[in-house]
Amino acid sequence: MSLYADMFISKWHLITLGLILIAWIALIAGGYDKRTILRSGGGAVLLLYIVSTIPIATITHGAHKIDESMRSELDRHYRERMSKSEVREDIDRLAVAAGAFSDDDSYDIRVYVGNYSSSYTFRGSLTFTTYDAQGQVVHEKSYDDVIIAPGEKKKLDNYYTSNTFVTYRYTFTAR
């Protein structure tokens, strides 16, 4: 979905719809006249939508910015890799980008993968390892049954950890 659709008409707005329905039912069950029901019900609709949309829009906007940033980083990382080496096989057209986003006292690690081939579909596994400034392994994870279609860029995983990383390495293994 697009950013604005996610911000203003998302699945989270179903909660608002439920609250609006409760407000209307309460007004009708309370025996109020039609004018009061319409005026108060309309006010409830407007107020509940605005009150729920503000946090939903803020959170959604932040998530979209992170996604956009990670996809740009994936493109940059791929271009950088291609400028340093020549492409020998289709598997060389795969790339990984990772980012650590601070979340209070922990870090949200996001792992994105991309397939820059126009015809090769990758099926296999990915081993992803992060390292600290001293070169010590912070976290290592294997992803089995990874499928990346030609031209596809997607978030593969995100996980929380107490430590951030400075660099990372990865290895794709085709089946």
Shape type: elongated
Spans with pLDDT under 50 lasting ≥5 residues? none
Q: What is the residue-mean pLDDT, rounded to a whole number?
A: 88
Radius of gyration: 23 Å
Largest beta sheet, briefly? 3 strands, antiparallel
Question: Summarize this, please?
Answer:
By secondary structure, this protein is an alpha+beta fold. It has three helices and six strands.
Provide a descriptive summary of the structure in words.
The chain is an alpha+beta fold and 175 residues long. It contains three helices and six strands. The protein has helices at residues 3-8, 13-29, 34-84, and strands at 94-103, 106-115, 122-131, 137-148, 153-161, 167-174. The strands form two sheets. A three-stranded antiparallel sheet has the order 1-2-5, with helices on one face. It has a three-stranded antiparallel sheet with strand order 4-3-6, with no helix packed on it. α2 packs antiparallel against α3 (34-84). The radius of gyration is 23 Å and the shape is elongated.
